[in-house]
């Protein structure tokens, strides 16, 4: 049997669900043309185009050197149509669409990436790309003249080649649009059995295969696509189905970009393949970070512990020690072990005074402060933060700036939780002395906490003005996600000032922002508060309303597929 005939047999089972999906209203049909380039599938697309459906082929495999390329290909057909029919629909999506096209510049200036130093995978940058992509597709389906009223059918004939970001976007699109979106995926019998079976043993799987299996299984079980189980000829070894990725080059920069963009499966596959040309130090750094982002904290700890052993100089060993202590402290709650690692590392660099030594020493002070904080030793934690800030004060560079911001934030928080809002406000306002304080992204974060602390100090009018300035920054940044929080807090502050009609309008605007981002909890909270204010004579019932918090940073959980497997997310 030649390759074309085999591929034809492999793809034939897709026809039934495709034909079922054709029933009912007209379609917007996006067909994943790669990696098979199947003539029958392209012929199917041509037939539907002739019948009046909107049809486009998209590159389901993508380019590993461009982490968002597959998602960009999914969005591109709508983008080009919008430019012709309704260009006004592009307003508000500029930075995200530019990032999809490979230009990260506009979005990187208004959205924070994942934090390597804090081992935090939460990335406003990735969140905005995914959230805006889905919101853009939903806007097109609802308002684009040629697409309005049509059902969206997305065909992915080989799910093993779909990257993590594209699957996340399809999951969000399916869950937000319900029956108006159908997703058809191809999967072999063996792969389907493996992914659907809760009792399937994982101990024989390698790391990347295990992670890929968990992610695909959660996608199938939560997104509920139309899964096509092929004939026996379609079966393939499990590893090939679960871990078939294009290789990234052995370049730390390329792999780090994949990690920071959320393409964790691709990065893990590249880092665990034999014959890698990466140095031991580079591999340990990137592999530890990948496992930390995946939630495999024990594995990440093993990697960083090995990096400490293999470090060729005290500075590299201290940097690995920061990661080890952070995992032990923040993720594994082994505080005594974390403190021992910190003290050992401090001793090893105690005589070094150059900028790199000062930077690592300041990070160690910062993690040590977290140990004290978790033990509820707030005064000791504050002192460690103060020592860290003094250590890094004269050190330049983006890493040092990030640490200074983190230390000032921690010192302010420690004063706040110790019942001293005035002291917390005084420390927080040091931010205005840092370079970059006029940047909209910087100001948004500063103003939000500043307003909350002003309110805690009994100054609701000043707090309202500061929060209003924060809202203006969210408009400058097209930050719909955070408007759900800023708008709600503006409503609370307006209610405290007795301005109930204004408060009701702010709650409504917060709810609109929450609905746009599919943040159901925030939407319900805003709706309840609006009703409470509308029914409250003289503001009596508004006394139970409180601010959403004193920090704007939020875990962007909305783009995560809920774990079914019980694996750490």
From TrEMBL:
Q: What is this protein called?
A: Tetratricopeptide repeat protein
């Amino acid at each position: 049997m030649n390759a074309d005939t085999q591929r034809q047999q492999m793809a034939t089972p897709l026809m039934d669900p495709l034909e079922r999906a054709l029933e009912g209203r007209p379609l917007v049909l996006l067909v994943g043309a790669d990696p098979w380039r199947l003539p029958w599938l392209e012929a199917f697309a041509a037939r539907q185009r002739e019948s009046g459906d909107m049809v486009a082929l998209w590159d389901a495999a993508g380019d590993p050197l461009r982490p968002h390329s597959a998602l960009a290909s999914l969005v591109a057909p709508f983008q080009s149509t919008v430019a012709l029919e309704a260009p006004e629909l592009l307003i508000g999506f500029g930075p995200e669409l530019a990032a999809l096209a490979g230009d990260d510049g506009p979005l990187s200036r208004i959205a924070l990436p994942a934090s390597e130093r804090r081992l935090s995978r939460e990335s406003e940058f990735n969140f905005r790309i995914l959230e805006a992509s889905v919101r853009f597709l939903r806007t097109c389906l609802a308002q684009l003249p040629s697409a309005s009223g049509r059902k969206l059918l997305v065909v992915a004939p080989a799910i093993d080649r779909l990257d993590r970001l594209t699957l996340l976007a399809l999951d969000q699109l399916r869950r937000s649009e319900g029956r108006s979106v159908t997703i058809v995926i191809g999967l072999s019998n063996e792969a389907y059995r493996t992914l659907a079976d809760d009792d399937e043993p994982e101990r024989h799987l390698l790391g990347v295969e295990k992670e890929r299996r968990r992610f695909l299984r959660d996608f199938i079980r939560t997104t509920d696509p139309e899964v096509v189980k092929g004939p026996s000829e379609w079966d393939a070894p499990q590893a090939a189905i679960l871990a078939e990725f294009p290789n990234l080059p052995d370049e730390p920069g390329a792999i780090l970009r994949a990690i920071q963009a959320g393409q964790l499966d691709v990065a893990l596959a590249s880092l665990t393949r034999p014959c890698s040309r990466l140095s031991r130090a580079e591999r340990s750094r990137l592999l530890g970070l990948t496992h930390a982002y995946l939630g495999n904290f024990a594995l990440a700890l093993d990697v960083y512990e090995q990096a400490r052993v293999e470090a060729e100089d005290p500075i590299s060993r201290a940097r690995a020690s920061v990661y080890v202590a952070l995992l032990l402290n923040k993720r594994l709650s082994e505080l005594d072990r974390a403190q021992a690692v910190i003290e050992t590392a401090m001793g090893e660099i105690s005589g070094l005074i150059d900028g790199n030594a000062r930077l690592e020493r300041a990070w160690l002070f910062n993690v040590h402060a977290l140990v004290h904080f978790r033990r509820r030793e707030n005064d000791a934690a504050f002192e460690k933060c103060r020592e860290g800030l003094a250590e890094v004060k004269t050190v330049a560079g983006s890493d040092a700036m990030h640490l200074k911001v983190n230390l000032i934030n921690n010192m302010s928080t420690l004063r706040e939780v110790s019942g001293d809002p005035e002291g917390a406000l005084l420390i927080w306002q040091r931010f205005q002395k840092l370079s970059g304080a006029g940047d909209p992204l910087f100001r948004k974060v500063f103003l939000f906490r500043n307003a909350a602390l002003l309110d805690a100090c009994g100054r609701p009018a000043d707090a309202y003005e500061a929060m209003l300035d924060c809202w203006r920054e969210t408009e400058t940044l097209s930050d719909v996600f955070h408007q759900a929080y800023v708008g709600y807090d503006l409503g609370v502050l307006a209610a405290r000032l007795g301005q109930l009609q204004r408060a009701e309008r702010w709650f409504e605007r917060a709810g609109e922002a929450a609905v746009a981002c599919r943040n159901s909890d925030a939407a319900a909270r805003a709706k309840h508060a609006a009703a409470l204010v509308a029914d409250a004579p003289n503001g009596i019932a508004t006394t139970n309303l409180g601010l959403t918090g004193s920090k704007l940073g939020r875990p962007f959980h909305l783009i995560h597929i809920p774990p079914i497997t019980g694996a750490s997310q």
